[in-house]
Amino acid sequence: MKMYTPRYTGTVTKYVFVESPEMTPSDLAIRAYEISQGVMIKETCFGLQVTGKEEDVNRIIDSLRALDPVHIFVKDRGFPPGDTRRCRANLGGARPGYFGHEFEMGLIRFISGGLTALPSRRPDEVPEPPAPKRREGLAADRLKEIIESQES
Quick one: fold of 12-119? Predict the structure, then answer.
């Protein structure tokens, strides 16, 4: 079995997801390019992929999230670029992680909606969760009747 040797030692990659009615991945990429200073920025269909030294990547992420904190989400990349265990050049087709991104993108609009609604609520306005509905079980006598009716 071939051992993996990292190609990008000392770097991290983070995904930046944008789900905003006012900002597109291209808008976010332009801002990222302006402040990148040697960090690799790659525009994707969901936002950006940012690769570089951890402190540089975090600086850029913080700056980008400040633009629209309710609609910009960040996630660490699980495997480094070029990792033979996950690289689509070795596996063929899309990286398996992209299917997860597609699923997550369908959920973040709900998270954005909740984050948008939070500041407008006062603590006394938060409704109590509904009491769980109690289901009545089958009475032992009724169960006995059913069993006996099946035996005859």
Answer: Alpha-Beta Plaits (3.30.70)
